[in-house]
């Protein structure tokens, strides 16, 4: 039998076993790319798989089926295919692997076209180029991630490996599973509101529980969250509920990252509507029932603008949407979110890390439901087990008892070298798991960066060998003049966030010259928080790299600005030098950049940017930052180095205007400019002896900096009238006049004090 026939026979045998077990199997075709495509075409010609159920994920449209580049793998979220082939010769993106693996249906095949396995880790591809952050070159990138990936492919059951160079089948991937026992039909809740047909459409008890949880949307001010790994039927449950609501006459608005992501939801909704209503009209993106109900799709932005026109809003693949978009959907009275928990889809863990806090603060009563039992494939599916291991999708920090008594005196500072992490699976899982659970952006690509990127460093605090706190650090700056000039002229430099922003946006061509170390992530185990461990880790990092050690001129960080985070970094010696003028798509927050200089060169960089920032922030507040939360604005200015406070160069006339509004019959509206300068100076200075309440400071920000109208400010701060709000503003300026006022201002104060 020739090699081509061997591969075809193997593929047919794998597929047959996968179908019997309702599991998936993987087929690795390792070797020459053209030979791999020849074998793949022979396999597809033999298998009885519709071309519409096959997808090629790769750079070229080589087959007679759907083709997507790896960068667009997220389009497969919420969909299923019987066969997905991934061409990994030009590049392998870990994020794409995670998204693709979850889209293969039970009984299906995941086919990987890869270089020879022995040589693959030592090759450099397109993804590696993204890790070659200047001043590092491609040769500085390592192949540890792919070495680990190859080891997992060889170690896990259900994965067949064919060496195309020799024609040898290295592993047949067969598991010979025992027959599975039949399961009982799911039982509906005794007090169900949905028709019995809705529960008859459920395939597992978990799915029936999810449909029952969605019945909560029958009441006002309700939110439901369905969480599950891929393949657990959460989208189908949402679709069944949507069909039940529509046949009862409700208007259901559905949104997802793209219409194709909600295809499963609409399929299930359409099936139930046809069962319950002979006159229902079912289309791919709209369903209408004879009771006047409907299920309709809108893109996320359009959906957020029309929530009030719908009775119920269902958000599918919620984890792939920006936090700001999710937050805007909370204007719906009744809303449900279906989200994946171990896939880091799109925005990573923005849903669970950031959005859940916003949801808890809303007016909705929240019902949670987690689906565990697989539907599209059986539990223990080999492809899922492999993907979770290879990409650390289920990575977790150490269990609580191991670190519960950790404090700064009991822990040890440790360098997490990539080779050490590669050799110690437990240490790798603990460190990466802590980063995953603590930050909304951590994703499979970050695992490859941790192991292979030459610009990254990892440090940790460990107790008895277990990770309690971890920091991911990126080297930035130290850029050659030609690179700095390119950045200044509009070019982008990968992996140099702070120099890039300070050069391209703030127009400082010298910003990329000093060498820096940016804290990309920092996370502390939830069982050991509020004990100073994060601060202790930063202090140890500063001791290691401070005073110009290892040629580092500054330490820095960038993050979605909140009062708590700004206070944390300020307490650890970092000072604000920039705030973005647009919100981050993932977090929905404005980003703050902070620096802690370690040498004279770093100090010069910090000082000029702190001065520039303090000088421009007031004007930005009345323009691009007019919707910045007042408490964030207060915290931002308080985290600016006090020595960068802009000088108060008010004329005697301007001081009389300010003092007149504070102590006399003067008006703020006559000349708001000097009031703004005074507020910025006060918040940066944060002087002793000035005791304004938080409400008074919010008033200063909203009216003097952000120029909100009196009615809006009075309503926001709960003043009884605009007149009371105006008087409160004047009162708030009194201690500022006392602290900073010149003789002209104090004369006005004395004059009206005498009256």
UniProtKB/TrEMBL annotation:
Cellular component terms (Gene Ontology): cytoplasm
Keyword tags: Acyltransferase, ATP-binding, Cytoplasm, Nucleotide-binding, RNA-binding, Transferase, tRNA processing, tRNA-binding
EC code(s) of this entry: 2.3.1.193
Catalytically driven reaction(s): a cytidine in mRNA + acetyl-CoA + ATP + H2O = an N(4)-acetylcytidine in mRNA + ADP + phosphate + CoA + H(+); a cytidine in tRNA + acetyl-CoA + ATP + H2O = an N(4)-acetylcytidine in tRNA + ADP + phosphate + CoA + H(+); a cytidine in RNA + acetyl-CoA + ATP + H2O = an N(4)-acetylcytidine in RNA + ADP + phosphate + CoA + H(+); cytidine(34) in elongator tRNA(Met) + acetyl-CoA + ATP + H2O = N(4)-acetylcytidine(34) in elongator tRNA(Met) + ADP + phosphate + CoA + H(+)
Segments forming a coiled coil: none
MF terms in GO: 18S rRNA cytidine N-acetyltransferase activity; ATP binding; tRNA binding; tRNA cytidine N4-acetyltransferase activity
Predominant localisation class: cytoplasm
N-acetyltransferase domain ranges (all copies): 411-597
Family: Belongs to the TmcA family.
Protein name: tRNA(Met) cytidine acetyltransferase TmcA
Underlying gene: tmcA
């Amino acid at each position: 039998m020739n090699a081509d026939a061997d591969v075809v026979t193997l593929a047919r045998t794998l597929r047959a076993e996968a179908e019997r077990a309702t599991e998936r199997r993987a087929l690795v075709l390792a070797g020459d790319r053209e030979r791999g495509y020849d074998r793949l075409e022979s396999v597809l010609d033999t298998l009885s798989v519709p071309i519409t159920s096959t997808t090629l994920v790769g750079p070229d449209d080589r087959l007679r089926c759907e083709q997507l580049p790896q960068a667009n793998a997220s389009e497969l979220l919420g969909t299923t295919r019987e066969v997905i082939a991934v061409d990994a010769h030009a590049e392998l993106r870990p994020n794409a692997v995670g998204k693709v693996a979850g889209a293969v249906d039970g009984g299906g095949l995941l086919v990987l076209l890869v270089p020879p396995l022995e040589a693959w880790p030592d090759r450099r591809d397109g993804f590696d180029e993204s890790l070659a952050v200047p001043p590092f070159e491609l040769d500085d990138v390592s192949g540890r991630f792919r070495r680990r990936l190859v080891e997992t492919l060889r170690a896990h059951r259900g994965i067949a490996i064919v060496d195309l160079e020799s024609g040898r089948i290295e592993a047949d991937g067969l598991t010979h599973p025992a027959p599975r026992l039949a399961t009982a039909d799911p039982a509906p809740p005794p007090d169900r509101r949905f028709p019995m047909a809705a529960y008859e459409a459920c395939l597992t008890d978990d799915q029936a529980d999810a449909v029952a949880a969605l019945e909560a949307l029958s009441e006002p001010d309700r939110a439901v969250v369905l969480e599950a790994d891929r393949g657990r039927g959460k989208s189908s449950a949402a679709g069944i509920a949507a069909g039940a609501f529509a046949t009862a006459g409700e208007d259901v608005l559905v949104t997802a990252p793209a219409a194709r992501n909600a295809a499963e939801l609409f399929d299930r909704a359409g099936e139930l509507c046809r069962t319950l209503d002979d006159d229902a009209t079912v289309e791919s993106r709209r369903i209408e029932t004879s009771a006047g109900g409907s299920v309709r799709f809108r893109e996320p932005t359009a959906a957020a603008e029309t929530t009030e026109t719908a009775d119920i809003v269902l958000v599918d693949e919620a984890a792939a949407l920006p936090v700001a978009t999710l937050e805007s959907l909370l204007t719906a009275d009744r809303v449900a979110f279906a989200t994946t928990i171990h896939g880091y889809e799109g925005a990573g863990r923005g849903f669970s890390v950031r959005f859940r806090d916003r949801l808890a603060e809303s007016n909705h009563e929240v019902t949670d439901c987690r689906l565990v039992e697989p539907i599209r494939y059986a539990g223990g599916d080999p492809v899922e087990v492999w993907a979770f291991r290879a990409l650390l999708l289920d990575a977790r920090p150490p269990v609580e008892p191991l670190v519960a008594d950790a404090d700064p005196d009991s822990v040890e500072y440790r360098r997490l070298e990539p080779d050490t992490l590669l050799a110690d699976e437990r240490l790798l899982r603990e460190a990466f798991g802590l980063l995953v659970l603590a930050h909304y952006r951590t994703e499979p690509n970050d695992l490859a960066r941790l192991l292979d990127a030459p610009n990254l460093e990892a440090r940790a605090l460990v107790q008895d060998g277990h990770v309690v706190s971890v920091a991911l650090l990126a080297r930035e700056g130290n850029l050659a003049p030609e690179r700095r000039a390119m950045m200044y002229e509009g070019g982008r430099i990968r992996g140099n966030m702070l120099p890039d922003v300070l050069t391209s946006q703030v127009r400082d061509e010298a910003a990329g010259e000093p060498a820096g170390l940016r804290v990309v992530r920092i996370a502390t185990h939830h069982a050991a928080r509020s004990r100073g461990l994060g601060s202790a880790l930063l202090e140890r990092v500063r001791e290691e790299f401070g005073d110009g050690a290892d040629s580092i001129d500054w330490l820095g960080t960038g993050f979605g600005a909140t009062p708590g985070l700004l206070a944390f970094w300020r307490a650890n010696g970092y000072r604000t030098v920039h705030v973005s003028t647009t919100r981050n798509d993932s977090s929905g927050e404005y980003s703050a950049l902070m620096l802690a200089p370690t040498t004279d060169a770093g100090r010069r960089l910090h000082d000029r940017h702190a001065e520039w920032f303090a000088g421009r922030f007031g004007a930005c507040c009345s323009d691009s930052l007019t919707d910045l939360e007042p408490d964030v604005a207060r915290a931002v200015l308080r985290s600016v180095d006090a020595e960068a406070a802009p000088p108060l160069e008010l004329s005697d006339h301007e001081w009389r205007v300010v003092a007149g509004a504070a102590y006399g019959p003067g008006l703020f509206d006559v000349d708001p400019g000097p009031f703004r300068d005074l507020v910025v100076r006060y918040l940066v200075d944060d002087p002793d002896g000035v005791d304004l309440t938080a409400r008074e400071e919010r008033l200063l920000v909203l009216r003097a900096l952000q120029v909100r109208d009196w009615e809006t400010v009075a309503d926001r701060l709960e003043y009884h009238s605009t007149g009371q709000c105006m008087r409160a503003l004047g009162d708030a300026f009194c201690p500022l006049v006392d602290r900073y006022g010149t003789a002209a201002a104090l004369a006005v104060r004395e004059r009206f004090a005498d009256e």
